[in-house]
What does this fold into?
Amino acid sequence: MNALATQTVSIDLQTRSYDIAIGSGIFDQAATYADLPNASTAVIVTNSTVAPLYAARLQQALQGKYPKIHTVVLPDGEAYKTWQTLNLIFDALLSHTCDRKTVLFALGGGVVGDMTGFAAASYMRGVPFVQVPTTLLAQVDSSVGGKTAINHPLGKNMSGAFYQPLKVVCDLDTLKTLPPRELSAGLAEVIKYGPISDLDFLSWIETHIDALTARDPAALAHAVKRSCEIKAWVVGQDEREAGLRAILNFGHTFGHAIESGLGYGEWLHGEAVGCGMVMAAHLSKQLGLVDAALVERLTTLIEKAGLPVKGPKLSDADNAGRYLELMQVDKKTEAGAIKFVVIDGPASAAIRSAPELMVRGVIDLCCA
Ligand code: NAD
Ligand code: GLY
It folds into this structure.
């Protein structure tokens, strides 16, 4: 990719405000980290796939600023987003006698980012951390906004904390090494922002979907920047998801059921969200909120992004019943009523429950 001018998106959260730097060739430059507080120790948390690609370069960039730098390499995969893996981070922090000023650097995708953030939120009741996302999904969504978590076998992201990073560094060059399937997964979260808040952006993605899948640098730069702007605005209004922020979960109620139902890692998070958005669009239509044209438009785009649009069978006996059972374990569920993010107008989303028979009908229609 050619060098692109670095752009900054700011997230306004009073004392917890920070910048998201988006550029090319920035994650391994000392200047990128010059504004961070000084400390005796920095700890890079990464995984076994990303470490050989990028950890030494990050370490070199941090060398002048932090006298001691340690690297923790976690096993790779959604299946490892667990207490056991989280404990590996605590083991390293304690064995290196890291103090409260130690700065953690999350180098990797959303799994590393969510776990490092949770470790930072809880080690000694909170130490500073920086997100250096290296997947498209993490650059457009998970590294921004301070949600951190690990999974439980019974439900996704069920233990965690709201804890904001000091800074987010999105280096578009790192996307060069991303496998195509992971790029598509990231595009699911990019597409999400269109129907929930910006129809012009949805049209732009439709026009540029081939450029995005071909990793055109300018197209990726715009997709990351606009996604971060929308997410920063939503989180700035509702940091701890009292209401509005839930719209960022469009497609996630169905998607999380797919992820936990199949076993974490079988489908990628972005694949499950892509298919979940198709299901949520159908539900929006069944509720009389949108017409068939929007369902068709979204389905076509999600398919063009290289994502599945038919849900997997989670049970031979009662597939819809199994989805419903899994969707009960969702943070939006209230008094047993499953809540869905639905599209209720042009660039507008709302949180609704729906009659069980209607949800069953949508699952039957959308599953292979
Ligand atoms: P991931 O972290 O598993 O990364 C995907 C794969 O790409 C992994 O195998 C990883 O090792 C590899 N990888 C990472 N960067 C690479 C690079 N530059 N080159 C080559 N390979 C690379 O998955 P993800 O899609 O980044 O994140 C999904 C996770 O994010 C899920 O756990 C999801 O729940 C979470 N998430 C969190 C939020 C939030 O707000 N906190 C939002 C969305 C998703
Ligand atoms: N990815 C959903 C959120 O950050 O709220």
About this structure: The chain has a mean pLDDT of 97. The first helix runs from residue 51 to 62. DSSP finds twelve helices and eleven strands in the chain.
